[in-house]
């Protein structure tokens, strides 16, 4: 059997591997591109790379991060809340939901937030002694709230003790001090 000695056979020896064939094909493609007047071999970071109309980059995936890549859930939730104006409501929820963490277990065991309106947080203490103590450390509590839930969310505290019993029974009442003479 006679061996074909055509033009194709002497360019590619039979002992070359796949890597050498691919390297030779790449060099031939680069030479053809240079002959056509194109810039070759400068990679993606080339300063001469053309941009699309409007100066924007292409949006397909590559080696770098892309807007279509998976995002952390916390980042997406923050973007949604910022876009919809929910930041203040989320901050209020953090004050009430994370009260134990923000002020610490000692204070949380004896006082609870009841209302947040116009940047004033209403806190009810379990006793008048605890209400007095909280009034003394009010600045520290405000600093903890600002660090935990955000600055400017709460600007002042209204601390109250336990509610006194009501002597009003029914829809009608008589003005005056009420039955106080029965207590000793």
Automatic annotation (TrEMBL):
<dbReference type="InterPro" id="IPR023007">
    <property type="entry name" value="UPF0232_actinobac"/>
</dbReference>
<dbReference type="Pfam" id="PF05258">
    <property type="entry name" value="DciA"/>
</dbReference>
<feature type="region of interest" description="Disordered">
    <location>
        <begin position="160"/>
        <end position="184"/>
    </location>
</feature>
<feature type="compositionally biased region" description="Low complexity">
    <location>
        <begin position="32"/>
        <end position="46"/>
    </location>
</feature>
<comment type="similarity">
    <text>Belongs to the UPF0232 family.</text>
</comment>
<dbReference type="InterPro" id="IPR007922">
    <property type="entry name" value="DciA-like"/>
</dbReference>
<protein>
    <recommendedName>
        <fullName>UPF0232 protein GII31_00020</fullName>
    </recommendedName>
</protein>
<feature type="region of interest" description="Disordered">
    <location>
        <begin position="1"/>
        <end position="72"/>
    </location>
</feature>
<feature type="compositionally biased region" description="Basic and acidic residues">
    <location>
        <begin position="1"/>
        <end position="18"/>
    </location>
</feature>
